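INFO worker-7 received task bundle
INFO bundle size: 2
INFO processing item 0
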Amino acid sequence: MASRYRNLFLFVGLAAVAVMLLTFDMPWTEVLAHVRRAGVWLPAVILLWIPIYMMNAHAWRLIICDAHTAPSPIGFWRVLKLTISGYALNGITPVGLLGGEPYRIMELTPYMGRARAASSVILYAMMHIFSHFCFWLFSIGVFLLRYGNRLSWPLSVMLVVATLFCLAGVYFFLQGYRYGLAMRTLRIFSHLPLVGHYVSDLADRHAEGIQRVDEQIAALHRQRPSTFYQSLLLEFLARLLGCFELQFILFIFTSQVSYWDCLLMQAFVSLFANLLFFIPMQMGTREGGLAIFTEAMHLNGGYGVLTGLLTRLREIFWTSIGLLLIRIGNKT
């Protein structure tokens, strides 16, 4: 990738982090007081994301290796670097995927060509989102097993709607894996007002290249199902591991913390945040989701405040690391 593009990604990212730091919704003295109260659990929350990112990187590298007929064109540590940087850019751009995925494609292109780079990045993005739906379905099952006897009519309706939404998402992605997703997605966006005709022109001008990407997407599920399910399992396990973040934070308040309740909280908050996907760095969405969940579960409101704060600090830390990695360790 040309140095000017890396500088552009870095500049946009640093500007977003600066805006986020300047618009913190509590005084810095209060932030520091909460950090001191957290003690060793804040470093534990930050370090927890090292194995999570490594699992994400391994899941993506499985797809990269499968998309390339020769031995792996790129090492694991470089994939890990691109994974962290890509997620940092995704987190600070509205609608997500508008920063990290183009960056990853541009960085991968010298190693394996534009078409294969694009297909591997799209495949991994699909796998990452697909694991969201699998995680939400799993959490619905956990909720029914633990709290099925407390169901009310409004809650039952919400669970049915959430289940149908997740099943629809699973079906959509399975169809995409079988027949390709790039062209179908562009055709859907071509019906949107204002931007629809631009998307339609793009699909028509690059139809041949997009078709090649779709063929490579479909080939993974059809020809290498073991790679598909290994990658999906790694992404799903990374989500289960991520639930320990909430458990570590709640250990600040009490040692009697159920992992399964933390899983349900994480599932609810992630669903709430993804419904408001257009907000950069999910500013306020996670805190709002935590507030709703803690009130619904009759928990202390301070749980949600401190959890939202420490999670936000962890995001700022890893976003900053990811932005620095954009300029570090690049081959000429």
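INFO item 0 finished
INFO processing item 1
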Amino acid sequence: MGIEVVVEGLTMSFGKQNIWQDVSLTLPAGEVSVMLGPSGTGKTVFLKSLIGLLKPQQGRVLINGVDMVSSPERDIYETRKLFGLMFQDGALFGSMSLFDNIAFPLREHTRKRESEIRRIVMERIELVGLLGAEDKLPGEISGGMRKRAGLARALVLDPQIVLCDEPDSGLDPVRTAYLSQLLIDLNARIDATMLIVTHNLDIAATVPDNMGMFFRRRLVTFGPREVLLTSDEPVVIQFLAGRREGPIGMSEEKDAALLAAEAAGPAAHPSAPRVIVPQLEPSPGLPPRAAVTRRRERVLGMLDQLPPAARAAIRDTYAHHAAAPTLTLPAPGSGS
């Protein structure tokens, strides 16, 4: 099973530029989480902070009792082995075959024999649907195949935490849909804690158990997917709808005068009803995701702490779930 990642009061600056401040959240063990946000809000920086590659000025990242910010370097190095990191561009070595690219972490960090390395690599190649392409160079395959090769490499050390940095970038909608299903299938197979940074609204709507969003140097929200998908925060509404009207500008956030002018003008888009599409399920033949049961118990336990719209959406989700008859849902009027 995956490992819980606890982030407490994390603040990151580069010189005088504050990237984000006082970020606190918990990635639940074995669940899939997505982090959204406009370009330039520090989502990739956040991933690198979790794994200890960048050092925030304040706060802690706790994994199995190790603080990835301030623990001794040897403890951070050992804990880093729990991670698999899928880079935005695949980060493959152009002169190596896909097989050798995927085998690289095993050869670098273990003393396994080549026969064992071959068995592991071919298992991961099959897992991501690349059988038959193992001898090709990265330049000889499509961008989507390079993404999957990068994911296979991230998995060869059996990580308990998988970080994916914009896995959809450069992919067309069909390949993105395949990738979304692959990520869900992967979670069903290995039950790892997963965090995906993306701009893609289709991935955000169908893949995660939990969602968060960065904007204006802060974490706007993080929690069960229903909280963000029903949020009344203007920046969340604008981002999920892909509209020009709202706090997000072309290069940065809009100033108060521009926001006031937009608010005074005619509404360009009527508010559409919020529809939460069902979360993807594992492909036929795969086991059910163990995270689903854990998440249901966790979310129902915190139901009274959530906004009314999120509570209603969660009740609706589980009312239509196959396991709903075994659940005792709080009454619609309970809680704050």
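INFO item 1 finished
INFO post-check item 1: The chain has a mean pLDDT of 87.
INFO post-check item 1: DSSP finds twelve helices and ten strands in the chain.
INFO worker-7 idle
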